[in-house]
Amino acid sequence: MSSLNTPAILLRRIEYGDYDLIVTLFTPQGGKTSAIAKSAKKSVKRFSGILEPFSRLDVVLAKGRGKGLPVLQEASLEEPFFKIREDIVKTAYASYWSELVYLWMAEGEPLEPLYQLILHVLAELNRGGTPVEVLSILFQMRFLSLAGFRPNFDHCHTCKKNLDQIRDAVVVSDPARGGIACPTCMGSSNDRPRISKGTLKQLNWTDTGDLERAARVRFTAAAIAEGLTFLESFVPFHIGKSPKSLRVLRTVRKELEKQVFRFTC
Ligand SMILES: [Zn+2]
């Protein structure tokens, strides 16, 4: 039996039998790691209030020789990020980011920059200093780069005209071809999301330099809407899966818009 002591972010937990939980952790050195928390549902003392989604934990994992899951032996709460879980909008965004990591990562393959990225956006989301939509743009842009799917915003994929040479102010999103097309090449008979060249440049800025500075890019409300529409179709397309949490996020956002509308009318 070998044991590993590591920081971890709790991506997901599911019930297993009457007493146990299976938790999926994201660790800097071990990547996505599932483990069984025995008696976690029954024992009030051991893991009570600790195995909460999005929390930053320190854990001890024990691995036997067989093929079974590692056993979560100890867990201590280092960053509870409880302000995320008490806010339905923040919870919806954090669930989406966590599910992207969960769906895309293979078990046991480390990717420390992605660990640092999600830790950063969760901490910022909890702190509340940056608009949640900007954090989501930042997370998705950098996630795409780390996953090797960075969109090509520099030129039309068909005629190869640079963004600055395209005369239209708005271009067409084309996830299947990995980027954008000019309206001339794409034609007018498609319903793909359109995005302004100005927004594309801002999306690029969120993927350069340090995270703190990148989160200070100032987006207009229209640019945020365009950026989110673009990324929330681009990212699921490239990981080849539809995150359930994205449907929830869209519902939560719609409800919020309705409330704002009612309040202002
Ligand atoms: Zn073109």
Automatic annotation (TrEMBL):
Pfam families: RecO_C, RecO_N. InterPro entries: ARFGAP/RecO, DNA_rep/recomb_RecO_N, NA-bd_OB-fold, RecO, RecO_C. SUPFAM superfamilies: ArfGap/RecO-like zinc finger, Nucleic acid-binding proteins. Involved in DNA repair and RecF pathway recombination. Keywords: DNA damage, DNA recombination, DNA repair. Belongs to the RecO family. It comes from the Bacteria. Signal peptide: none annotated. Residues 1-81 form the DNA replication/recombination mediator RecO N-terminal domain. One of its GO terms (cellular component) is bacterial nucleoid. GO terms for biological process: DNA recombination; double-strand break repair. This is DNA repair protein RecO. NCBIfam families: reco. The keyword DNA repair applies.
